[in-house]
């Protein structure tokens, strides 16, 4: 009864007045919380005080016997005389007759003196018993009769409705919650003969304050000589982390025996995902739909094996989860790991296999649920898990936890913390050269987010070369995404096109969603830039259709949702535009503590609903300057369509242009200058540079851009569209290029460009 003093005091107070009529005490607690022990202690205390006791309990098979718990508690059964005289009714009348027998027995017993009736495990009670308990306390309220009723708390069941009604009529509720840390330490000291040390205390905490699991764990450790008392403290003597004793596995197996075989198999498979998991991913791993798994999940919840959190399901206790994982045969566990790696998000950093479940909560154990949460848009939860993983010991296979955490922080534009985590990962990689391939890509992401496109391109090129040399597909895909996006912003469309072609040649169909959707978003941006919205949509089908189950594309950059809405609206696909807005709103509502998701959702909705106030807010509140520029440009487009708002439109475009220039987004800045020209405003971009009179070094930046586009096979018109200038201006620059390079045809230009470094 350690840690149960307040609950026990409530029961004792009511037992001391057992001679008074009409006491009903309702006891609720999870499996193993100590309900049966409390009822047993109550019966002992009542007997000592001279109160008669009647004890019964329900069980699964007993549901076939109407009023079985009450009949057994009162030791009542149809009399032999009644059977002989064939006095027992049949059909519906039998229940009424049995109920009368129970009531008469209770009246006889209570008339002789105070009576305590305890009924345990009423979650398994038959309907007739529950109906009787609904009526009898009120019918017998004048008798010295106390009821002590216990059940597991489950919602929406008949026993839950019974307890609610009895509470409404004045019953006292005693809830057995998990033991506090102090009580757990006391139980450990009682069982082990000495207070536990820090490591043993941490292990005991995995029981989650559940008395039964705690005692089974401690008793099992003693039975297997895994604990010794030294220096006045109980210490573990085995492996670290310790293998759970057989006694725990037996207890957990009994719990799982309460559910169907299908549910047990689901729990064993889901356990490999981690202590908490998404029903959607469990369904994906098992090749089922979430709806098909619903009956099994509901059964596991009712049995108390799983609990529901706002965003996912979780094994109720870490000890329970560990036991399920450890009892899955190793070959099966390995096969499930392989299936997860093929169908669910990987670490998105290096593609190396990790030991996600090894009997303890290591860094790698936490990374899979962190990435699952992130991919589903539960950013706060994923970020918390990733931060915790960085603080945990790992297997030492790679610096993945820091790399993943840094990527998440960059996505949210928490650049100071991202820089610190990246520096830490870089320090680790210095001691392990095989890890060094991670670092250039993290640095490239940081540079891209901070508006350093040139540096991002250089570092992404370095990372791409290393990833291809090591044949790490996840890193290669990530490098191409960063390189393509940075090249597009810098106005280097030829390089962006080469990234697109490389990614298409590699294919991303077998990549996990977290990596694949980011790659497809980057590919869609490049395709849209090259050939318009229709072409972009051809690369983005899976990005849209994955919503809302996989939202990684929306969180990969602050303006991604708005861009996807813009492309969908450009091809009149309002259904997909609305899907993006809905998913962005959902991400924002699930992550109220993070500012960027809310601003991203406002930007996307403002674009979809043509809401100038929302777009203005997005332009002001985006922390990412490129995303803020994008919102300002969207506002300018909306205002520019209203002839009465020309000045406001010019002001919005000037704001966007300033921000694009600030982060080196040359292509975007050129597009905005084109929009301003359409409004009769010219904003020239002057760069004073000394050039030779001939040769490659004599070409200006604009001429080099024209050269690159023509060398890629674009016509003058296509090049003009990419550079947001007129076709005549492209022709003028092309003549200047021919003169400076002393050539006379596009074929010669292409040949020279292919042979020149950097093109």
TrEMBL record:
<dbReference type="InterPro" id="IPR016032">
    <property type="entry name" value="Sig_transdc_resp-reg_C-effctor"/>
</dbReference>
<dbReference type="InterPro" id="IPR041664">
    <property type="entry name" value="AAA_16"/>
</dbReference>
<dbReference type="GO" id="GO:0006355">
    <property type="term" value="P:regulation of DNA-templated transcription"/>
</dbReference>
<dbReference type="InterPro" id="IPR036388">
    <property type="entry name" value="WH-like_DNA-bd_sf"/>
</dbReference>
<keyword id="KW-0547">Nucleotide-binding</keyword>
<dbReference type="InterPro" id="IPR027417">
    <property type="entry name" value="P-loop_NTPase"/>
</dbReference>
<dbReference type="GO" id="GO:0005524">
    <property type="term" value="F:ATP binding"/>
</dbReference>
<dbReference type="InterPro" id="IPR000792">
    <property type="entry name" value="Tscrpt_reg_LuxR_C"/>
</dbReference>
<dbReference type="Pfam" id="PF00196">
    <property type="entry name" value="GerE"/>
</dbReference>
<protein>
    <submittedName>
        <fullName>DNA-binding CsgD family transcriptional regulator</fullName>
    </submittedName>
</protein>
<keyword id="KW-0067">ATP-binding</keyword>
<dbReference type="GO" id="GO:0005737">
    <property type="term" value="C:cytoplasm"/>
</dbReference>
<dbReference type="Pfam" id="PF13191">
    <property type="entry name" value="AAA_16"/>
</dbReference>
<keyword id="KW-0238">DNA-binding</keyword>
<dbReference type="GO" id="GO:0004016">
    <property type="term" value="F:adenylate cyclase activity"/>
</dbReference>
<feature type="domain" description="HTH luxR-type">
    <location>
        <begin position="692"/>
        <end position="757"/>
    </location>
</feature>
<dbReference type="GO" id="GO:0003677">
    <property type="term" value="F:DNA binding"/>
</dbReference>
């Amino acid at each position: 009864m350690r840690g149960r003093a307040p609950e026990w005091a409530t029961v004792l107070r009511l037992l001391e007045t057992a001679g008074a009529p009409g006491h009903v005490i309702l006891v609720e607690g999870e499996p193993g919380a100590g309900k049966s022990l409390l009822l047993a202690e109550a019966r002992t205390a009542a007997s000592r005080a001279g109160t008669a006791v009647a004890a019964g309990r329900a069980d699964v098979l007993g549901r076939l016997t109407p009023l079985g718990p009450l009949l057994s508690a009162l030791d009542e059964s149809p009399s032999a005389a009644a059977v002989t005289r064939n006095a027992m009714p049949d059909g519906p009348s039998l229940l009424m007759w049995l109920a009368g027998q129970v009531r008469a027995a209770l009246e006889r017993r209570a008339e002789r003196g105070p009576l305590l009736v305890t009924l345990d495990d009423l979650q398994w009670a038959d309907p007739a018993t529950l109906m009787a308990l609904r009526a009898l306390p009120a019918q017998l309220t004048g008798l010295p009769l106390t009821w002590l009723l216990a059940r597991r708390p489950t919602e929406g069941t008949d026993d839950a409705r019974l307890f609610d009604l009895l509470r409404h009529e004045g019953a006292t509720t005693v809830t057995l919650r998990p033991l506090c840390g102090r009580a757990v330490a006391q139980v450990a000291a009682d069982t082990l003969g000495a207070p536990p040390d820090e490591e043993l205390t941490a292990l005991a905490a995995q029981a989650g304050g559940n008395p039964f699991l705690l005692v089974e764990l401690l008793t099992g450790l003693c039975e297997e000589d895994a604990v010794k008392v030294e220096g006045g403290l109980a210490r573990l003597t085995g492996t670290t982390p310790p293998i759970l004793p057989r006694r725990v596995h037996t207890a957990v197996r009994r719990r799982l025996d309460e559910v169907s075989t299908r549910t047990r198999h689901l729990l064993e498979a889901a356990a490999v995902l981690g202590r908490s998991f998404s029903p959607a991913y469990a369904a994906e791993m098992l090749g089922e739909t979430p709806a098909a798994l619903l009956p099994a999940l509901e059964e596991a919840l009712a049995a108390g094996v799983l609990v529901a959190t706002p965003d996912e399901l979780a094994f109720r206790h870490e000890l329970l989860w560990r036991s399920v994982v450890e009892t899955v045969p190793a070959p099966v566990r390995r096969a499930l790991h392989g299936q997860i790696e093929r169908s669910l998000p990987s670490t998105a950093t290096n593609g190396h296999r990790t030991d996600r479940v090894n009997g303890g909560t290591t860094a790698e154990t936490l990374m899979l649920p962190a990435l699952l949460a992130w991919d589903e848009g539960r950013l706060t939860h994923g970020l918390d898990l990733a931060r915790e993983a960085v603080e945990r010991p790992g297997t030492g296979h790679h610096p993945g936890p820091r790399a993943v955490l840094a990527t998440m922080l960059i996505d949210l534009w928490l650049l100071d913390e991202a820089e610190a985590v990246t520096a830490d990962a870089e320090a680790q990689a210095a001691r392990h050269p095989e890890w060094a391939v991670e670092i250039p890509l993290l640095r490239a992401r940081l540079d891209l987010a901070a508006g350093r496109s040139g540096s991002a391109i250089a570092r992404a090129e370095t990372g791409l070369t290393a990833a291809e040399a090591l044949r790490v597909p996840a890193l290669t895909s990530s490098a191409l995404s960063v390189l393509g996006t940075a090249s597009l912003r810098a106005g280097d469309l030829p390089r962006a096109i080469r990234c697109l072609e490389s990614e298409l040649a590699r294919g991303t169909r077998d990549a996990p969603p977290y990596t694949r959707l980011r790659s497809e978003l980057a590919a869609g941006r490049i395709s849209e830039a090259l050939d318009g919205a229709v072409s972009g949509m051809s690369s983005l089908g899976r990005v849209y259709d994955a919503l809302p189950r996989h939202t990684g594309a929306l969180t990969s950059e602050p303006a991604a949702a708005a861009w996807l809405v813009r492309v969908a609206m450009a091809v009149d696909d309002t259904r997909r535009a609305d899907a993006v807005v809905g998913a962005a709103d959902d991400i924002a509502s699930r992550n109220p503590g993070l500012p960027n998701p809310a601003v991203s959702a406002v930007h996307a909705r403002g674009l979809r609903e043509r809401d100038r106030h929302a777009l203005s807010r997005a332009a002001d509140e985006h922390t990412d300057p490129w995303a803020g520029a994008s919102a300002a440009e969207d506002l300018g487009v909306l205002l520019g369509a209203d002839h009465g708002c020309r000045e406001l439109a010019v002001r919005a475009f000037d704001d966007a242009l300033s921000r694009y220039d600030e982060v080196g987004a040359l292509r975007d800045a050129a597009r905005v200058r084109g929009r301003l020209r359409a409004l009769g405003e010219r904003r020239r971009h002057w760069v004073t540079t000394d050039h030779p009179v001939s040769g490659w070094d004599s070409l200006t930046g604009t001429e080099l851009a024209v050269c690159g586009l023509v060398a890629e096979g674009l016509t003058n018109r296509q090049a003009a569209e990419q550079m947001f200038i007129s076709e005549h201006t492209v022709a003028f620059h092309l003549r200047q290029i021919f003169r400076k390079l002393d050539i006379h045809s596009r074929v010669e230009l292409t040949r020279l460009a292919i042979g020149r470094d950097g093109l």
